[in-house]
Amino acid sequence: MAIQNFDEAMKHDRAPFAVMIGGVEYKGYFADIRINRDSVPAGWRVYDMRHDDSGDPCEIKNGYIVVNHYGTFFTRDSLPLKEGDSLYEDGFSYSFL
């Protein structure tokens, strides 16, 4: 499981990205690598995403995803997920901006 620090993700691995939950759009960035939560500065939130067997995102989680990790969404917004909670494909949508 490859993990990099937040600063490296901001420099090299960020793509503008948005997640839609309950009609609310949350904008931020996407990295196709895991981000070390200990390196995330105050004011930022980090959420892991899982893909299904066809490679499409099917889950977003407030915590680490180990199996079928799709990427990491990082944003200044808090998603409506408590620590360890997930939303599955029918509860969110996403787009690269």
Low-confidence stretches: none
Helix content range: under 10%
**Beta strand %:** over 45%
Strand order of the largest sheet: 8-6-5-7-3-2-9
Task: Characterise this structure.
The protein is mainly β. Strand 5 (45-51) and strand 6 (57-61) form a beta hairpin. The mean pLDDT is 94. It is 7% helix and 46% strand. It has one domain (3-38, 45-96). It is globular, with a radius of gyration of 12 Å. The chain has one helix spanning 6-12, and strands spanning 3-4, 15-21, 24-31, 34-35, 45-51, 57-61, 69-75, 86-88, 93-96.
Topology:
Layout: E1 3-4, H1 6-12, E2 15-21, E3 24-31, E4 34-35, E5 45-51, E6 57-61, E7 69-75, E8 86-88, E9 93-96
Parallel strand pairs: 1-4
Antiparallel strand pairs: 2-3, 2-9, 3-7, 5-6, 5-7, 6-8
Jot down its keywords.
mainly beta; two-stranded parallel sheet; globular; 1 helix; seven-stranded antiparallel sheet; 97 residues
Condensed summary:
With 97 residues, the protein is mainly beta. It contains one helix and nine strands, in the order βαββββββββ.
